[in-house]
Amino acid sequence: MLPDIDLRIDNMLKALEQVVIPALPSDGRLARDQVNLVIGHLRMVKDQWRFAVKFEAGSLANMIRLGTDLAGQADERYQDELGAALAAARDADPTDQAALAAVIGTLGGVIDRIILGEDGRVPLPPPAFAAVIDYGRRQARRERSWFAGTGLDPDRAELPTIAQTMGAAS
Fold first, then answer.
1. Residues 6 or more apart from 149 whose CB is under 8 A from it?
2. What is the pTM of this model?
3. Per DSSP, which regions of the chain are E strands?
4. Taken in order 149, 153, 155, 158, is the CA torsion positive or negative?
5. What confidence tens digit (pLDDT) does each residue in 97-129 have?
6. Rounded to a whole number, what is the largest CA-CA distance in the chain?
7. How many domains does the chain have?
8. What are the phi and psi torsion angles at 51 (to 5°)?
9. Same domain (yes/no): 62, 133
10. Burial class (CB within 10 angstroms; exposed 0-12, middle 13-18, buried 19+) of 66
11. Same domain, yes or no, for 29 and 69?
């Protein structure tokens, strides 16, 4: 019988908490801090791994929507690159996390250049601001839920769980 991913993560956590941390010297504060960071990340990965592909697919859908909204408004110099990035994003395999991450990186890079406008030399048309803000509103809540396990969001108790977020429309 092969252990499932949750059991494997639980075993790593147990080893770190019950063997590694107690074995650290009392003056090994940096090592203890680093082990605790790894423990925190493993706990987040345990909460996230089942939903990773769905999260990336939802992020891509939001980015495609933003790119589509910007397509008619962006400066002409960006149109071909944006069109190619949007086509690749729409053709990406929605079950392949690496493919999703790659097209998110490409499309996001083009969108960033449009928004930044070559360091302010190419202005973003005012109607495009609404599309950017709408994207931020939709995506920020998803990302806040995704990373709530860090404990850094002051309103984390009010956020939906990852499962609830992934069950809701992106």
1. 40, 43, 44, 47, 48
2. 0.86
3. none
4. negative
5. 999 999 999 999 999 999 999 777 888 888 899
6. 62
7. 2
8. -105, 5
9. yes
10. buried
11. no
